[in-house]
Amino acid sequence: MDLVNESAKYIFPKRFESSNLEEALMSVPDLETVKFTVLKRTEQYEIRQVEPYFIAETTMSGQNGFDFSGSSQGFNVLAEYLFGKNTASNKMEMTTPVITRKAQSNGEKMEMTTPVITKQEDGDKWKMSFVMPSKYGANLPLPKDPSVRIQEVPAKIVAVAAFSGFVTDEEVKRRESKLRNAMRSDMQFQVKEGALVEVAQYNPPFTLPFTRRNEIALEVEMRQD
After folding, report:
1. In the chain, N or C terminus with fewer CB closer than 10 Å?
2. What is the pLDDT of residues 124-141, one digit of tens each?
3. Residue 191, Cα to own-chain centre: how many angstroms?
4. Is it the case that residue 70 has pLDDT exceeding 90?
5. Distance of CA 12 to the CA centre of its chain
6. Residue 224 CB neighbour total at 10 angstroms
7. How far is the first Cα of the chain from the last one, in angstroms, to the nearest whole number?
8. What is the CB-side half-sphere exposure of residue 62 using CA atoms within 13 A?
9. What PANTHER family does its record include (predicted)?
10. Quick one: which of 54, 12, 17, 20 has its CA closest to 35?
11. How far apart are CA 58 and CA 55, in angstroms?
């Protein structure tokens, strides 16, 4: 299986559509993403009601969440599942123009979606997940790689702050601290106790830093007092 070719539409989503260089640089992959409703918007963050969705998730290697080796390994493992390394025996026709050719194996090929979400666990472990195409619902094929897990993420309310540039562990810590501090002044919502930070990256690795779209999120709840 050629992951380079299968990922081409993700890496260059509007390669032949942008009329000039500026438009090409500012392009965000035109892919299916998590559905949500904006409940509140401030200068520092957005409160979103997120609908349930399914993910394919794997634990990243390495001590840091965003080192190149760990990120690349996690991405490749998930991409292999998405592009056919699963237990389905039938090939399904594509419903979007994101991926245009059929799977090379007997597995089932699915559309690439965005964002790629990285979540911190206890200690230094991180998990990377791909949001699964919504048309599959709970009927996703099982992964052949035991390190890949399929999970349903329930509906939730999150506080989200967007930022550009490269994502590093230091930057995530800084952005998380800034978001938590901002939420302390919110009279409607508060960060849920024990909430773990999530980072969504909407662009491929080759995107220039100043045109990148990243988001940091914390689960929140309505204040009761």
Report:
1. C
2. 577 888 888 888 889 999
3. 21
4. no
5. 17
6. 5
7. 56
8. 16
9. HEME-BINDING PROTEIN-RELATED, OS02G0533200 PROTEIN
10. 54
11. 10
